[in-house]
Amino acid sequence: MTRLDVISGFLGAGKTTFILRLIQALKNEKIAIIENEYGRVGIDGDIVRTAGMDVYELTNGCICCSLKNDLRHTLETILERQVDRVVFEPSGIFVLSELLDLFKDPGLRSRCALNAVVTVVDATNFFTHLDRYPGFIKDQIQGASVLIVSKSQLVDARVLREIEDHLCRLNPMVPVWSKPWDELSDHVLLGFLAGSHRKSLGRELARPQGEHEFEAFSIITGKQFTEEQLVCFLHQVLNGVYGGIVRGKGVVPSGQGGLSFNYVTGQYEVRQTSDCSGKISLIGRDMKVEELKKFFQ
Question: Is there a contact between 61 and 38 (Cβ–Cβ < 8 Å)?
Fold first, then answer.
């Protein structure tokens, strides 16, 4: 039977980076990846394809609403290929309890076993996100079978202990990994996925209420940017010039290849890349869409 592993986590937690690490550990298995991005433009799928994986993309929605049927049909298509494992990366505003509903379907459950639910927790933004979006964060943590803390090396030991204590209170039934990821061996990682912690998956979860007010801005641009222009834009995003942007990622053309950027709740980075696809995806609340269009077009 094909196993399904879910890699959950809030916006910008590091889910795609974790999947790339997971792919290395599962090199002897036939794997398919499902990417669900909140927006019309898929970016993470392109990143995972560089690792040689078959990627199925679900965009323009989140699993908690319009894409539940699309996910079921995608799984059925993949299962015809007789893969060993499906790795599903939902959008950061994914409601885990809705996925568990999907596996009440006897036809799907007889062919595909929900194996592990890994929730990636961003150490640098954990308490900020828990305060602002408690429904999403608690749903993802309490529904997990293992919790993986990302960016732990960027916070001090006291803060990390507070995060660990909070995670253990929210979900005392599961293991928590909070060391840097370069210390996470294949043996330990595969142990987390072995299914020995699945008792946590059967619990009834409290579903987020009244928090889904996010909107997505997606665009493909051919406009060229300098690194200075992109950094200036991200600094303006940080200061709220373009509204309440929580997550941003993309690639823009430049005079010497391309520039990729990542923005997560007040933190950003810009890197040079050979990708010039011009794909931009922003998620937030009350975004100034016309101003964003003017900047990127």
Answer: yes
Q: What is the pLDDT of residues 174-195, one digit of tens each?
A: 999 999 999 999 999 998 888 6
CA-based angle 15:224:238, to the nearest 5?
A: 50
**Are 268 and 262 spatial neighbours (Cβ–Cβ below 8 Å)?**
yes
Which of 46-60, 86-100, 238-252 has the weakest average pLDDT?
A: 46-60
- Helix segments in the chain, DSSP class H: 15-25, 44-49, 68-79, 96-102, 106-109, 126-132, 134-142, 157-170, 186-192, 227-238, 289-296
| Cβ–Cβ under 8 Å, residues 103 and 143 | no
> What is the reported pTM?
0.85
Cα 34 to Cα 60, 68, 104, 227, distances in angstroms: 14, 13, 20, 32
What domains are defined for the chain? 2-202 (3.40.50.300), 215-296 (3.30.1220.10)
Closest among 29, 96, 106 to 64, alpha carbons compared: 96
